[in-house]
Amino acid sequence: MIGVMIGRRMVRSAYEMVNRGDIDSMMAGWADDAVYDSAAELGDGVTIKGKKAIEEWHRRYFEEFPKRKFTLKSICFQETFPLLSTLIGTSVIMVDWSITETNKQGKEFTYNGASVFHMRRGKAVYVADYISMVGLPQLSTLMKPTVRV
Asked: Which residue among 9, 16, 71, 117 sits deepest, i.e. has the most Cβ atoms within 10 Å of its Cβ?
């Protein structure tokens, strides 16, 4: 039980780093060989490989959306002892969230999503975002444009 509480605190802390735009602290939790699958409209997204490339993508994201506020709805761990698995082994963490973000033109967007973190010895090695953006316009130039036939 205490491991779950500590694990949830660690996850909340990581999202607070994103809310503040504290990229250096945030990136400390990523493995050098990490892969990030960032979702986009209608399932089109971008796969980013390597900690340095993931950091560069987040820097552009923070520039494009200078204000963001994640609200965490639930945090789920695959393991019975999540803290132990996260720190010394492998684990999977799922976070259900909503976000309100403001782009650099001052337009505000709110939507929901979930992120799945595959962890190895306390570092994110694979992260995938799943976003529900029903009714929203394309939010970011960081995503591949949607091609409609």
From this structure: 117
